Amino acid sequence: MIARASALVLLLYALGFMLFAFTLGKPAPASAGKADAAVVLTGGPGRIEHAVAVLRSGQVKRVLVAGADPLVTKDDIARRLGGNRELLDCCVDLGSESVDTRSNAEEAGRWLAKNRFKSVRLITSDWHMRRARYEFERGLGGKYVLSTDAVRSEPGFLTLFGEYNKYVLRRLAVWADI
Fold first, then answer.
1. Taking the alpha carbons of 48, 53, 58, 59 in that order, is the dihedral positive or negative?
2. CA pair distance 77, 13, nearest whole angstrom
3. Structural domains for the chain
4. DSSP 3-state assignment of 150?
5. What's the pTM?
6. Nearest to 151 by CA among 130, 131, 125
7. Residue ranges of the chain with pLDDT lower than 50?
């Protein structure tokens, strides 16, 4: 009986991983409406560049770079992006309070409330979007219209496997109220 139950749990886990791997986050469609702000989570290539492109295009008014290293400055980002410090000064805030996805959502919630925004576009890598969206939906408590905009990547097996485990463990922790 224990062997069958263990086999069933293992099968469900494997099927869940396959579903996770084949249904990664998607970029926002071209028809996506405007949002008051965007929150970009650090930690993956192309995320900040994409957020600045969204800002430049007028789809959002302001951007929070959540989880930025406290030593990173707007000059550093401007050099990385090839100039345009004016846009960064005007419309980009660096948040360095958060250290993980859950605290990214908490930091973003304080920033959204302070700026009295009503809608937000969440920008992160495609493989990270499911857990990020889950944390933001929990952390923001339905106070804001949340849309997602995943940056496409080519994640390896270990990246997907690690992220799937983080997602499953977080869901279990919330379910168990830990």
1. negative
2. 40
3. 25-175 (3.40.50.620)
4. strand
5. 0.93
6. 125
7. none
